[in-house]
Amino acid sequence: MRPLPHPPEAEEHADSIEVLRGWIVEGELQVSIAPCWEWREQPAEWGRLLAEAAGQMADAISNETGKDRAEIYRTISESIAHHLQNSPKDAGAQKYGVMDE
User: Fold this and answer.
1) Buried b / exposed e across 46-72, counting CB within 10 Å, b at 16+?
2) Which helix (H) or strand (E) element contains residue 85?
3) pLDDT tens column, 41-57
4) Residue 99 and residue 101: Cα distance in Å, rounded?
5) Which long-range contacts (CB under 8 A, 24 or more apart) does 92-101 make?
């Protein structure tokens, strides 16, 4: 397993909370989340987390491949919208591993 390093600011603050991890295991996506009640009244913040992750992924892919960042971001955005509209009914804690606080 090759975990990513923590962001430097997260390392500096003892009250930082990791909320999402993702892996590709034998070609399949695996995700685990830690419920973060910090944003329980602000569900739009979770959309911001996904958008920022999509932007960083588009940057990384563009840097690695030389492909247009805007096109990559558009493709990721369309995929997010598709998967939100067509998410499996069983996509929940049992399938993806919700971790206790």
Assistant:
1) eeeeeeeebeeebeebbeeeeeeeeeb
2) helix 69-85
3) 888 988 999 999 999 99
4) 7
5) 96/30, 96/31, 96/32, 96/33, 97/30, 97/31, 97/32, 97/33, 98/32, 98/33, 98/34, 98/35, 99/32, 99/33, 99/34, 99/35, 100/34, 100/35, 101/34, 101/35, 101/37
Looking at residue 40, its amino acid is R
Amino acid at 61: I
| Contact present, 58 and 79 (Cβ < 8 Å) | no
Question: Could you give the angle at the alpha carbon of 88 between the alpha carbons of 82 and 92, nearest 5°?
Answer: 115
**For the whole model, what pTM was predicted?**
0.76
CA 34, CA 27: separation in Å to the nearest integer? 23
Mean pLDDT of the chain: 85
As beta bridge partners, residue 32 has 21
Which stretches of the chain are assigned E, i.e. beta strand?
20-25, 28-33
